[in-house]
UniProtKB/TrEMBL annotation:
Region of interest (Disordered), residue spans: 106-143
Lineage, opening ranks: Eukaryota, Metazoa, Chordata, Craniata, Vertebrata
Organism of this sequence: Pteropus vampyrus
Keywords, ordered alphabetically: Coiled coil
Name of the protein: DPY30 domain-containing protein 2
GO cellular component entries: Set1C/COMPASS complex
Annotated family: Belongs to the dpy-30 family.
Amino acid composition bias (Basic and acidic residues), ranges on this chain: 107-118
Coiled coil: 40-67
CDD domains: DD_DYDC-like
Biased composition (Polar residues): 122-143
Amino acid sequence: METDYLKRCFGNCLAQALAEVGKVRPSDPIEYLAHWLYHYRKITKAKEKHTQEKTQLKEEYDDNLKETKMTEILKQEEYEIQQKYEKCHKPLISVASSTKKTIFKQENTKPLEKEALKQESLPGTSNMLSEIPQQFSSFDSSG
């Protein structure tokens, strides 16, 4: 029963420590054995920590790689949607803009037409309009 406990807790660590004590034959074997066991535990914990960090870094790298691939896929889909949108709506945009231009032109000419009609309806203005070009032509010939 004690051997099971020792195997479970020490594994082959105790066997390695005792073999080292036998090989080195220090003056104080108990102190040497204690230092060796502390050093062994320190190294074992450092290896475990390193393994955990390595595993965590690998997981983070894999997650980042998946995220990068997903971002690329989303950008590609967005580009394709944009292309489809431009292809489908380009004729509508040009038709709508030309319609707006014609409406704008019509709206701008209406006040001018109204003003011309007002001037024609006022008494004495129709004669003045026809006389103005004659005055300029007589001025050019005299000048």
